[in-house]
Amino acid sequence: MTVDDPDTDPDRPATDGSGAAPASPLEGAAAVTESRPRWQVDLGYIVLTTIGIYVLITALGLLTGLGFGGVFRQLQTVTFLAAAYALVVLALNLHWGYTGLFNIGVAGFMAVGAYGMAILTAPTEGTTTPGLGLPMWVGIPVGVALAGLVGLIVVLPALRIRADYFAIVTLAFAEVIRLTINSGALADVDAFGRQLGTGGGRGINFPLLEHAIPRWVLYEGGDPAQGATFVGVQVLTVTNRLGIERTVVESAIYTSVLVGLVAVVFVLSVRTANSPFGRLLKGIREDELATKSLGKNTDLVKIKVFVLGCAIMGLAGIFWQGRNGYVDPDAFLPIITFYIFIALIIGGSGSNTGSVVGALVFAGVLFEGPPYVQRIINQVIDLPRPTTIYDAVVALGSFDPLPLVGYTVGQLANLRFVLFGVILILLMIYRPDGLLGHRDEPASPLDLRAERPTDGPSSVDGGDDDE
Amino acid sequence: MGDVTDFTWEQWFGVLLLAGVGVLILDLLRRLAVGDLGASTLTTFLWRGLVDGLIVGLAAVGLSMTYSILRFANFSHGDLVTTGAFSGWTAVWVIGGLGAADLGSRLLLNADRSTSARALDVHVYAEPLAIVAGLVIAALVTILVALAIDRLVYRRMRDSGGIPLLIASVGVALVLRYLIVFLYGERTRGVVRSSPSIDHPLLFWTDGVVVHELIMVGSAVVLMVGLHVLLQYTKLGTAMRAMADNRDLALITGIPTERVILATWVIGAGLTGVAGYLIVLEQETLNFNTGWFLLLLIFAAVILGGIGSIYGAITGGLIIGLADNVMLVWISGDLTRVAAFMLMILILIFRPQGLFGGVETA
Q1: Which terminus of chain B is more solvent-facing, meaning fewer CB atoms within 10 Å of its CB: N or C?
Q2: Which stretches of A54-207 are assigned E, i.e. beta strand?
Q3: Coiled-coil stretches, from where to where (chain B) (predicted)?
Q4: Which residues pair with A190 in a beta bridge?
């Protein structure tokens, strides 16, 4: 979490200090020295984690005879989830990792984005909760803007309160949003001469984004009747020849669009972090009073970054629910926020690379892992299934551990939450910086080390030792 | 808070809040006079508000104590409520249901769906001893769990800031909640039969007093008075106040801070466990999320009364309980929580020291 960490890893590449953005003008300068520039290292972390998780899932699945179909579905789910998480985790990293704004109302902002989009794009007739029937290219930006607007409403009054109060305020806001959506009061409203509403507990059905977005890529005007676009022709020819089903192609495109969005947000986030604005964010995180006394308008900076992060959370909410074509309030329980936090803390708050790695590890291993293992175990062994732990323990008395094992395997989906908790506790006690949060992020846009090659890295970082 | 601008903000907020409450009370009187609102409906709301409020207050005392002495918002507090509820009612079923059902289904509160609260006849007239025993065991188990957690987790983090402790407490909450699921299952189960009630001409304001609610109110009041005596007339209370004020200074003065922390957990967790147990006595059903869903209301009570103030927590609980019920006059039942949370947000933003000026009486 520190800008300059004196306990820097000694075997870290010497050119770590170069601009981290791929498009950085310093890229060339960094490439002169023999070690790789930081952005390559960062990309390496992400690619290696992805490959590692893919190999793990594939190996486990194939070795135990789950078959290619099962493995493929699992990989697709994991990729989608990891990308959706990565988007939110990057946004939260802007809030908490860089600015120190402890926002635990993430689920609420995701809900605003998703509901904004759903109300705008839901068909006007023939559904339980009618909407405005607008196309998705209206719905998505408005949903994102709404999430940002609600972020503005939340942050304006909450600018100066303590971090733990800020946490409770944001959590309470998220619950207010969810309970309001859930209530009957706004379920059916007459507005603009139409039937509208949040649908209360029954939720809203809207056109599947998982269909709409890929069709928009594949066909002219998003309509299969009007013929394929240039991209569409290429993709469809190849996939037809390979015999891949259309639905599989569409969901693959949907996931790719999401991954592309993550990449865009990632680059933007890295560039933000390295910009003067980013230094202000880190300054607020480390010592707001000091930053203020340098004549910086910290309130304005906090408002900007909070609104930006909330808008990205709204976007993530839209894509996440767009896969189902259905939103309901139960999808935005506070636990979602804590999932995001776990992912961020694993990766290391204050690191964009860490955010993505954390999202990958959380979605691929922690969240999807236990049910996957459960599926595999069920496929391989036929374990006894006692209905309660009492029966399992009684069987243990007659030296038969199998019922207890069977019960535990049956409970894996619940036990993973225990695992989340244990990981969170262990990380906070032993490694509060997560996997990558300990690395220093240079405050200077110039690579100071490159000019003084004789100096070790610590002497450059050492300037902050006396703080 | 000596800043002039802060002061005016607060004053404005106070005036607005008082005006709002005044308007609502006037409207309430108008409705009573016009006959929109029956007097019996209002007394029902008030009584239910008192019952809910005392229980929330009881749970809030524990949260307020740990907040002021350990200096972090404990998000696992709701799951301590659940722990108390499950352990206490397991004890009631094991003791009270002897012979009525086999041990397995009694130990796990009917996880195998082979029996029911009706079959075991769990209510206060049929099983008075078991219900008292359950109350004690709920407190004991919750205290032990809280102490174990403190030893394993929070003690290693005494010098971390409030936020790392808050995050760790979220982890603790998840572990506790899903270990309860692992043992008992996810199902919502009824564990108490509906309460007997007393009908007497002297009880003019209501058709009948529900005995379980009476027990709840009685236990809550007794515990609160006991707490008051303990903290006002013992050295422990002074030590706690000192620690809440300045931990380093307390340490220098020779106050055994670790022992005070231990006492904080014992008192706080004990009351929390009892609160969880009593909540179930009233609502008759139990679920692994029972406490988690209450957590934000408990926070609202603590914040309303001012963090660190025990009397504030009790008063905050009462206000939240009353507001949650009396609000039904104006808004539908699914929005009363929204109103309570909005009130909490406003207090946190405009008057973070609570309604009563944040006198730390821990």
Answers
A1: N
A2: 189-191, 194-196, 204-205
A3: none
A4: A195
User: Can you read off the two tokens belonging to residue A223?
Assistant: 């309509």
Query: Which among B73, B178, B341 has the least Cβ separation from residue A417?
Result: B178
CB pairs under 8 A between A and B: 144
The ranges assigned to domains in chain A are: 31-377
pLDDT digits (tens, 9 = 90+) for A359-410: 999 998 999 889 888 888 888 888 888 888 888 888 887 878 888 888 888 8
Q: Is position B165 within any domain?
A: yes
For residue B171, give the nearest of A389, A414, A421 by CB distance: A421
Give the rounded percent of residues in chain A with a pLDDT score beyond 90.
Answer: 29
The mean predicted confidence, pLDDT, of chain A is 81
DSSP at A195? E
Express each pLDDT in B37-79 by its tens digit: 777 788 888 888 999 999 999 999 989 988 888 888 899 999 9
CB-based contacts of B226: which residues, under 8 Å, 6+ apart?
A: none
State how far the Cα of A27 lies from the Cα of A38, in Å rounded to an integer. 9
Q: Which of A157, A388, A423 sits opposite B112 (nearest CB)?
A: A388
SS3 B189: strand
Q: What is the CATH architecture assignment of A31-377?
A: Orthogonal Bundle (1.10)
Do the beta carbons of residue A150 and residue A105 sit within 8 Å?
no
Q: B203 vs chain A: nearest CA distance in angstroms?
A: 36
B96 within a domain of the structure (yes/no): yes
User: Is B341 at the interface with chain A, CB within 8 A?
Assistant: yes
The verdict on residue B320 lying in a domain is no
Q: Is residue B29 part of a domain?
A: no
